[in-house]
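testing teh design pipeline on a random one, pls ignore if ur not involved
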């Protein structure tokens, strides 16, 4: 992790960033701000922020468009993207996670909770970066950490970063049953407020990409990797 990681704030409707920015700076991070998706893309390409915090509603668009642009142009593959929104509907949160967001926070965000979240996001990033660049998976599968993908003899399966981290965990001990608590604490951190449905959404997406039988559900227990 860089000594002074850059945090990009993408301001939108009813932004809370005036309140949160001092917390970010006090934690030792450099802050850049914009209220425009085009500028957000420019700053991301030029300065490669470690963290992008974006309001959901941005001018006449929303952060889902920004996430799709990130994916299209291969940006933020090694960074963290968090969406802040006043909308509490489950389908909105799921849409943001499916589009590549690492977290979804409901505004107004408690200042102490945000400070804790900020540290946990970077601790998780440092933990991932400290691992080997590529992990060998049993039965001839390879995980490519640099591209967040599964490499097969017949091709490549690209994943979202959270999907990749879950696969990395499950394949570290194939057929071991990982509880939701173990998955949450390993991927989101012990202090994170990740909900069970968030984990379930990522598992569902993974199954659609790597095969429904690859990840087995153990009712009342958790998940295991069975390739």
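output:
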């Amino acid at each position: 992790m860089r000594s002074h990681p850059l945090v990009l704030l993408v301001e939108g409707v009813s932004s809370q960033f005036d309140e949160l920015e001092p917390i970010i700076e006090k934690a030792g991070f450099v802050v850049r701000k914009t209220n425009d998706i085009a500028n957000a893309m420019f700053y991301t390409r030029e300065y490669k922020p470690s963290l992008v915090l974006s309001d959901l509603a941005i001018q006449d668009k929303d952060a889902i468009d920004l996430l799709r642009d990130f994916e299209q142009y291969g940006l933020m593959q090694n960074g963290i993207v968090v969406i802040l929104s006043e909308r509490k509907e489950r389908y909105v949160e799921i849409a943001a996670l499916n589009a590549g967001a690492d977290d979804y926070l409901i505004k107004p965000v408690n200042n102490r909770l945000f400070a804790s979240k900020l540290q946990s996001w970077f601790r998780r990033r440092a933990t991932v970066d400290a691992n080997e660049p590529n992990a060998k998976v049993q039965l001839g599968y390879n995980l490519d950490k640099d591209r967040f993908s599964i490499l097969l003899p017949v091709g490549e399966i690209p994943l979202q970063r959270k999907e990749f981290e879950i696969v990395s965990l499950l394949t570290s001990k194939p057929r071991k049953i990982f509880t939701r608590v173990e998955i949450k604490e390993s991927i989101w951190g012990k202090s994170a407020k990740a909900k069970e449905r968030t984990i379930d959404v990522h598992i569902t997406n993974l199954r659609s990409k790597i095969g429904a039988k690859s990840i087995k559900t153990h009712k009342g227990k958790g998940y295991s990797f069975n390739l």
